[in-house]
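thought: fold this chain, then report.
action: predict
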Amino acid sequence: MTTRIENATVWTPAESGEGYVEYSAVAFDQSGILAVGDEAMSHAAENVIDAQGAFVCPGFRDGHAHPIPGGFETLIAPVRGHATPQAIAAAVGTWARDHSDVEWIRGEGFDHTLAPGGIFHAAWLDAEVPDRPVVLRATDYHTVWVNSEALRRAGFTSTTPQPHDGEIVRDESGAPVGTLREWGAWRPVYDLLPPKTHDQVVASIATASEAFASTGVTWVQDAWVEPEDVDAWLTGLAAGVLDIRVDLGLWCDPNTWRDQLEHFLEARNRVVQHGEGLLSANTVKFFADGVLESATGAMLEPYCDCPHSKGLPNWDPEELALAVAAVDALGFDPHIHAIGDAAVRNALNAFETMLAANERRDRRMTIAHAQLVDAADLGRFSTLGVTANFEPYWAKYDEWQSELTAPRLGDERTNRQFMMRTILDSGANVSFGSDWPVTTQAPLEGIQVAVTRQMTDGPFREPWMPEERLTVEQALRAYTRSVAYQAGDPRGGVIAPGYGSDIVMIERDPRQVDPLEIGALKVLGTWRDGTAVFGPVRGEGHTGSS
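observation:
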């Protein structure tokens, strides 16, 4: 069916260069954009929508998210939104008592700023659930809080060696307190968890798909896919609950990556055969380090509150370069999580080594987060052709910063985080993502922060690093055309004949409202490949040829 949206502000990045173009109408169907402007008004359409002045732009794309965990959070203990660790524990206890048949009590997304130093104690959970294992993951998705029964089942004691790629937080006697940081520490616990049921998988993907489509997102980079997740995505697709396109970023384990290469190829082949155009598996994901909040981000200089520590690089730099080159040689696009300035440098060095070693091809290289970048490395994104994928909602001074990050970085490093404008001005491709469920999946909320760099209420209302603010047009491009480039999609992120028909309609032009109100704008409709996946749309007109 052909759809025409008229009486709109149709905004699109230009097909080339950094500019943008506006029209008043667009016509499209499942094959793509058919016409714009006056030509669209004369194009026959079965469905005509009077936008009544609404804003239309290319469908948003999320360059870094975790959809399955985000959907799964709704099915387990509710740990978000509580004010104290004890309140979290009480909510977990209530859920556990209401679900007496569940052996392992899980929750994901608790606020890791609520305990001093981000250290949570098993005893707080034991008071509520002493007889079953409890496993909670924090909003950073790098920190896990467990009770004593979970520690017991994992075999963690005062004599358990510290893993090389994680930290078992201990008390003065050497006993584990209940906080586990990074894979090496919490993987032994997660390996004991029962697999998700078929119904849980379908429900998780349905929830995630709806969450993205309802906020205007039509394509997502799943930035952490393990073998069972490939099965989960294919299961959700077969169940008919997937309305968005998803690229699977296959997780590369620094301990076993050579053995994974065959699996990566097999997974990609399965997705090509059964993905039905909605799923792809073109990416391999690396975690170069942890996060600054828990002092596991890899740093060039020590943390202020841990003068003996420069964090926790998950990869040996030379090994990272070898692995990145290996997956690139197989035709995958490397996507590297790098938070600390040492991790960013290691990632850039790995890409430089890879480019020298491998044959030239149309490849896409991405560094996700780039929270802290040394001055010597700022220009290397552009020089090497690396996309800097930022999560713009993080670029504000909030409790994460005041309670955990800033005390560890000190003033100078604190005030050179998320240098989006500097890297964009250097000529690099800057794309946006959400890291959902770490933070909101709504692009308009991320755009608001990218444009303002400030909170709307509370004690942190002043713009933070205002020189790094973007214009609304730059932020829109970062969530559309720039992610399409990151994904290697030549037909994405532009509204023009010959391009794909991913479209979002927003109630008002985000350039014409108070910047601190952008995040509150309503998404009225979302089309993926010309098919409405969210609505109903305000002002929907008659059906029939016009």
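thought: worth noting. The two ends are 13 Å apart (CA to CA).
final: tokens above.
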